[in-house]
Amino acid sequence: MKKFIFGISLLFFLLFPAKITAADTYTKEEVAQHDASASCWTISENKVYDLTEYLDQHDVYLDIRQWCGKDMTGDFKDKAGLGRDHKSSSYYLFESYYIGELSSTDTTASTQTVTSEQDSSAEEQYSVEISGQELKTLTIGEISDLWSIDTDDLLQQIINEFDLKKMYTANSLLYELRAEYKFSPSQIKDIAESLKTKNLEVNNLSNSNADIQSNERNPYNLPIPFSISLFLYLLTWHMSKSSLGKKFKLLAPSTFNMFWNTVLLLSLIPSALFGFYMILRFSIPELYNIRFNFLWWHVEGSIIFGTISILHFITRLNLYIIPLKFPRKG
Q1: Average pLDDT over residues 140-154
Q2: What is the mean pLDDT of the chain?
């Protein structure tokens, strides 16, 4: 019995050594040294990841090289300002590039810095120093100017919030509105700051989208597979129709058809398999561990298959037209 327990324990230690060994720790300075495509480290939630091998496989609409050597916790959670989190499968894939932890000293300093920056940012961007008594004497237009927000938006928000029935304009004083409903000046501040926050979020989203569009890069190659497929197909088709097709069996129409039907099949099978694989990855995240750019080959194979299919259809157009011109008589 003791030997059995010892054997199970030994097997556990051999199979799961990473679970019981202490993780490596890195400082921010060490991570910052890996800020290029050749060696790209990044920080997320105080963990360190080496994304060097993954850069070329990432979504083509977002160049993540800007994260190299930096803390990308916030950008990863909202897709660099798009306001959408990554899927659970992305988090699983992300963990496969984990190499260690951020040192505890940097973790504490980082938390304090972020908190301090957020507090000061809130004070600078959203706080307007004005007393409630002063606010009551201002018009809606003057209040909107203080918070740098749209006057009509502020007025409409106040009317909707307190269900005001009378007609008011940008020149209406706040105390005139309070005559209909006794709201507090602090409520007006909350509404104004809420509108300003929304405006800032919209502006940040627009800027992020602009940055993403400026960083867009197309990893796919349309001209090369299209041009080569087009040239070789038309060349062999012309030769099969010429006198050479009658003299040489290798250039005969039957050989031409067999060759290009085979190319169609060879380009279709892997392209279809790659497509099935990418669908299965959402259900089986472990498939992300396969280090192969399936998407790139799926796209390139589809270009070849599509080009040949269209040419095949064009060269056989008569087979479709003739039955239409001369329908069978019943």
Answers
A1: 89
A2: 76
Residue 44 phi, psi dihedral angles, 5° rounding: -145, 120
Write the pLDDT tens digit of every residue in 285-304: 677 677 777 777 778 888 88
Hey, what CATH class is 13-107 in? alpha beta
Q: Is the pLDDT of residue 57 over 80?
A: no
- CA–CA gap between residue 178 and residue 41 (Å, rounded): 57
pLDDT above 70 for 257: yes
Give Cβ neighbours of residue 312 (< 8 Å, ≥ 6 apart). 260, 264
- Which residues have CB under 8 Å from 78's CB, separation 6+? 84, 85
Residue with the two structure tokens 């088709």: 237
Q: What is the pLDDT of residues 62-80, one digit of tens each?
A: 667 788 888 888 777 665 5
Domain boundaries in the chain?
A: 13-107, 132-214, 223-325
- Tell me how far apart the terminal alpha carbons of the chain are, to the nearest angstrom: 88
User: Shortest CA distance to 44 belongs to which of 116, 94, 96?
Assistant: 94
Q: How far apart are CA 149 and CA 192, in angstroms?
A: 7
Which tens digit of pLDDT belongs to each residue from 95-112?
Answer: 778 888 888 766 555 555
* E strands, the chain, in order: 25-26, 35-36, 39-44, 47-50, 98-102
Q: How far is CA 170 from CA 141, 156, 163, in A?
A: 5, 10, 17
306: left (phi over 0), alpha (psi -120 to 50) or beta: alpha
CB 153 within 8 Å of CB 195? yes
